[in-house]
């Protein structure tokens, strides 16, 4: 079995964090090879499956990325997670879908690229004073801005973000800056482990690359129940198809509120899981690909 792990141009070699997974796949007879997802000379037909786990720049080339998913579909090369779920997860409008399904979701205003004035009108109808503005298709705090509506001129900043596509605005959640963001990791639909990502002093970003502190958290039945409810609300019967997923949120009045659902290329913090986490992920990948081959 031959598997392509999709990487990007800024990743010249396999990160240390991913080497245990590659080793676990090899133990199961699967050869995992890193392939730049934008390599137009890649022979995708040579692979039994594709894992988009390291394509950390897909949001900068979203049309090209979606075209690759279409190409893989036509070649009948399975993508893990499945391509239809990835397409859905690319655009953060999925938050509205999950909210309509009855989940607690961070309030969000989406602004189409050619409707800046309409978006601003919707924003000024809220009571939000401090906001977070970013592209709808984004990751890793790309072009993310924090603005105080009483002090900052929003319009030029919004127009700059809209140059890159549709935008989204959320209220600034002090809970994340003060107490951190929770990430709950699932493998094959089963809860695996969780971490708390605490931004460094004076920052709001919860990613480790911006200095956030990451620590494991204890099992919490209520949070995990909420996360499972979110996963079950994904269309395409996704809960039964997901290989990996990360549910990011924060606590407000003791309840888990969804910030983001990571189904494309999340960092899974496997080092904070049990010693079997990597083996469980490798087994899930191989079992799913074997199932596809036997169809």
Automatic annotation (TrEMBL):
Single GO molecular-function term?
Answer: ATP binding
Q: How is this protein named in the record? A: Glutathione synthetase, ATP-grasp domain
Q: Which organism is this protein's natural source?
A: Pseudobacteriovorax antillogorgiicola
Q: What is the lineage of its organism?
A: Bacteria, Pseudomonadati, Bdellovibrionota, Oligoflexia, Oligoflexales
């Amino acid at each position: 079995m031959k598997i392509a792990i999709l990487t990007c141009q800024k990743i010249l070699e396999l990160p240390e964090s991913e080497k245990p997974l590659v080793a676990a796949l090899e133990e199961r007879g699967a050869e995992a090879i890193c392939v730049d997802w934008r390599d137009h000379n890649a022979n995708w037909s040579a692979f039994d499956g594709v894992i988009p786990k390291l394509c950390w720049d897909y949001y900068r080339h979203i049309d090209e990325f979606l075209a690759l998913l279409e190409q893989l579909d036509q070649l009948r090369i399975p993508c893990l997670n499945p391509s239809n779920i990835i397409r859905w997860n690319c655009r953060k409008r999925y938050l509205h879908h999950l909210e309509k399904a009855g989940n607690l979701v961070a309030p969000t205003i989406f602004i189409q690229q050619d409707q800046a004035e309409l978006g601003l009108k919707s924003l000024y109808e809220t009571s939000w004073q401090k906001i977070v503005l970013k592209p709808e298709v984004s990751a890793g705090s790309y072009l993310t801005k924090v603005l105080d509506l009483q002090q900052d001129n929003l319009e030029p900043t919004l127009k700059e973000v809209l140059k890159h596509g549709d935008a989204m605005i959320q209220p600034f959640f002090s809970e994340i800056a003060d107490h951190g963001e929770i990430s709950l990791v699932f493998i094959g639909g089963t809860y695996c482990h969780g971490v708390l990502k605490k931004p460094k002093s004076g920052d709001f970003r919860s990613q480790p690359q911006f200095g956030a502190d990451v620590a494991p958290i204890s099992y919490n039945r209520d949070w995990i129940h909420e996360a499972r409810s979110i996963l079950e609300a994904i269309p395409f019967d996704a809960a039964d198809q997901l290989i990996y997923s990360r549910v990011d949120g924060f606590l407000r009045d003791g309840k888990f509120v969804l910030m983001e659902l990571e189904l494309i290329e999340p960092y899974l913090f496997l080092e904070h899981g049990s010693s079997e986490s990597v083996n469980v992920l490798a087994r899930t990948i191989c079992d799913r690909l074997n199932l596809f081959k036997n169809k």
